[in-house]
Amino acid sequence: MKVFKFGGASLKNADGVKNVASIIRQHGPDKLLVVVSAMGKSTNALEKIHSLAISGQNSSSQITILNDYHQEILKQLFPAGHEVYIAVETLFQELRTQLQGSGEFDQIYDQVVSIGEMISSVIVHHYLISIGLHSHWLDARTCITTDKNFREGKVDWIKTSAKIQALKPVLEKNIIITQGFIGSTEDGYTTTLGREGSDFSAAIFASSLVASSVTIWKDVPGVMNADPKRLSAATVFEELPFQEAAEMTYYGANVIHPKTIKPLANKGIPLLVKNFEDPSLPGTKIHECKVYDLPPLIVFKDNQCLISCKVTDYTFVTEQHLSIIFNALSSLDLRVNVMQNSAISFSFCLDFREHKVLSLIQKLQEHFEVYYNTGLTLITVKNYDEKTFEMYRSHAGVLLEQSSRSTLQVLVRL
Ligand SMILES: Nc1ncnc2c1ncn2[C@@H]1O[C@H](COP(=O)(O)OP(=O)(O)O)[C@@H](O)[C@H]1O
Ligand SMILES: N[C@@H](CC(=O)OP(=O)(O)O)C(=O)O
């Protein structure tokens, strides 16, 4: 059996849904489970709706814009009176109810933002039925069990795998359509797996079903040695070892979610990255292989924050200081992307998740003089050569630089 994953870019309008349906129709004789993300930029829109509502502002015009966007897609795909209209309206009702719910910021966020995937999966499912395919709609929350770490739910693999394996009889006669990005706590609250987590969902299903492959359908011809939106000369890899792909995603190559590779590599399931606009292109095969002479691989990670903690009592930075800093990071579940120390200060950069980073800074200020800069970009050059090394080191606006024998990292203000 195979797993396909279609992201927001492939489902951004009615033609996108038709194209996805045509790829599914042509998939061949294998059993198939399809994971879909929210349409277009719906998750960003839902994040905005949530943040307006939480801060006591009126979110109704943003909800209307999101509803209109989906209604336009529906109108182009289904005749008036089709049952899908009621299904989507029910989900918008659910959105309004959740916005009025009580609970922690992150908990409400997950109840609200997950609705994008619910809507898109319902639309794709009904469209597949309308063109004569045997589609079975699955609520991913009935299979993917996580802890209560809202916005970054940690998967309970034993429970999740058992529930996913129970889907095998359904797959005999149906194509399963389900949501990426979402799961559920044991007591029934929706959780999300981290932004752009639908690739990871595909890997969870594939690993539990021991699929023969996972294909993630993207708007690029495959995995490239840099984001083609940043470097137009980027070239496509025919194949890549799991290890290399995992490292790329760790440094921030957002073509694949960082948690996707491990479950697939553990079971030896190849990950294919293919282009949904031209499925005839070969794409990239990520699997256990050796590739020699890889070109320099350049990864840009935006929205970085550089924090410097300076000791205030004329002592040097000690292990006790580092322990305070790392305990604070760990208590907020924050990950450091690069770190560096001098005699009297310790600097590190991390993703700027405003809410959490400001709490971190507050904690650190109890012990250090804290300085911070936001709006930075971390550029990582893996397998650098002389030319790329010099080029990125001498980049304008470097705030921090670090290199090993194979990897250069510079933190810059672009
Ligand atoms: N190394 C890379 N190779 C290919 N694409 C990359 C790379 N790094 C970043 N990207 C970006 O990833 C995008 C595809 O991922 P994403 O937008 O998350 O897709 P989707 O939302 O459809 O899952 C591409 O449009 C491209 O700009
Ligand atoms: N919709 C979610 C999950 C996701 O993975 O989306 P996409 O496949 O479009 O990156 C997000 O935007 O974070």
TrEMBL record:
SUPFAM superfamilies named among the record's database cross-references: Carbamate kinase-like
Pathway the protein acts in: Amino-acid biosynthesis; L-methionine biosynthesis via de novo pathway; L-homoserine from L-aspartate: step 1/3; Amino-acid biosynthesis; L-lysine biosynthesis via DAP pathway; (S)-tetrahydrodipicolinate from L-aspartate: step 1/4; Amino-acid biosynthesis; L-threonine biosynthesis; L-threonine from L-aspartate: step 1/5
Any single biological process term in GO: threonine biosynthetic process
Catalytic activity: L-aspartate + ATP = 4-phospho-L-aspartate + ADP
Gene3D superfamilies xrefs: Acetylglutamate kinase-like, Aspartokinase, catalytic domain
Xref: Pfam families: AA_kinase
Superkingdom per UniProt: Bacteria
CDD domains (alphabetical): AAK_AK-HSDH-like
GO cellular component, one term: cytosol
E.C. number: 2.7.2.4
Domain Aspartate/glutamate/uridylate kinase residue range list: 2-275
MF terms (GO), sorted A to Z: aspartate kinase activity; ATP binding
Keywords of the record: Amino-acid biosynthesis, ATP-binding, Kinase, Nucleotide-binding, Transferase
Family according to the record: Belongs to the aspartokinase family.
Protein name: Aspartokinase
